[in-house]
Amino acid sequence: MAMLQRLAQLSRRSASLASSPFAASYAARSMSTKMTPAAAIKAMEGLQSKLDDAMQKMMQEKGDAFSKNEFYKMVDETPELKEALSKYRELDMDVEWSWARIRSMKAGPLTAPPVTVTVTGAAGAIGYALLFRIASGEMFGPSQPVNLKLLDLPAAQPALKGVMMELNDCAFPLLKSMTAADDPMKGFAGCDYAVLVGAKPRSKGMERADLMKANAEIFSVQGKALNAVAPKAKVTVVGNPANTNALIASANAPDMNPDQFTAMTRLDQTRAEHQIAEKAGVTVEEVDRVVIWGNHSASQYPDISHATIQGKWAKEVVTDEAWLKNEFIPTVAKRGAEIIGARGASSAASAANAAVAHVRDWFLGSDGRWVSMAVPAVGDFGMGTGIFYSVPVVCYPGGVYKRVGGVSIDPASAEMMEKSRLELVEERNAVAHLLPK
Fold first, then answer.
1. Strand partners, 287
2. Is CATH 3.90.110.10 what the domain over 266-434 is classified as, yes or no?
3. What is the C-alpha to C-alpha distance for residues 39 and 34, in angstroms, rounded to an integer?
4. What is the pLDDT of residues 184-206, one digit of tens each?
5. Which of 128, 216, 321, 410 is deepest in the core (most CB within 10 A)?
6. Nearest to 307, CA basis, from 403, 407, 157
7. d(CA 163, CA 123)
């Protein structure tokens, strides 16, 4: 991978450094650079800090107009930064490892106060895939301690006990405490972030209206509990129908800002990014600004009208309109059903991965990148209000996101977006009698 492209991924990639092959590789690196391990880490920290400062400065100057490609170009044209990148590459040449892992190896105690995160449906397949990644530092960062609060139904408590045993057996340094609960008031108490995974699945023969009603009852209870015991929490809804479940939870939390609630469409975004990368013959990190509009359902609109591939407008690279219409959009929209058909179970690991990425960017910032989140509609893009609609946002450290403005919408896109909006309105109307007046 080109080093300039790799730079943008340093804080996001992971590699196992605990094994003896790493130790051997690190020793080789230390010998080749004539540095002790501590000195090499210190040197890399200084170089990364210089590059980070330059990126942050450009982000502040450019605002929403910030582009990774502009940053790469600026580094290439600035001798001091180009030299810093060259030295970093020299230090990093012997083994692939992430900057996040370098920081996690620094000596001394982890002094940041723990982030308390509640995961609902914690004993389920997605919860199981998610919890170990939170505890390892992938969601909140490699130097951020966490307290885990695991919420699930009474019948799931024995299985949850087994999950907790496994988490303890991993001896994660960042995991400072862990509790289980079957009462939302206890499970959400004092949490900073909540990931609402648990939801009632649609069973065979169940009418959609019945599914909506069942989930309305679940998420109304959770919204009320969050309002009572965690009014400052940032909430990500994963359980489907995610957009409308987020609406229900938010409507039942009158003391919380609706912007504290989001629904996850990140899995749709990563699915779309892979499809585009494969079609263009590039790596996924060379694809940027793919947008998911609307509902996390088959009506969603995966949009590449503003995307770039290796810095070029995506539609100049992928020119096969028939493929985009007849293969790309249906594949992304119906991927979940395709996976169920192939493995006999729904997406779990990929959904957990998307939840990690969604919350991580919300907590740490998205480095100027556009990411898709379903957020409260505020009337932009003709979507009206009273629904949660997926739009492109840019996230900033500390749990702040900003909707991307000034995005032009062509007639074909507007038609697809309206279709998804109408579905969300229909979902809202189906549970209107269960929403607080």
1. 309
2. yes
3. 9
4. 999 999 999 999 999 887 666 66
5. 216
6. 407
7. 7
Q: How far is CA 388 from the centre of its chain?
A: 17
Q: Please give the class, per CATH, of domain 115-256.
A: alpha beta
- For the chain, report the end-to-end CA distance as a whole number of angstroms: 54
| Alpha-carbon span 246 to 197, nearest angstrom | 11
* Domain boundaries defined on the chain: 3-104, 115-256, 266-434
Dihedral in degrees, nearest 10, Cα atoms 323, 329, 334, 336: 100
Give pTM, 2 decimals: 0.75
d(CA 324, CA 94): 40
In whole angstroms, what is the distance from residue 162 CA to residue 175 CA?
17
**CA gap 324, 413 in Å, rounded:** 12
CA 306 to chain centre: 20
Q: Is 296 a catalytic residue?
A: yes
What residues does 178 pair with on adjacent strands? 148
Phi, then psi, of 17 in degrees rounded to 5: -115, 0
Res 95 pLDDT > 50: no
- Mean pLDDT for the chain overall: 84
Q: Is the pLDDT of residue 360 over 60?
A: yes
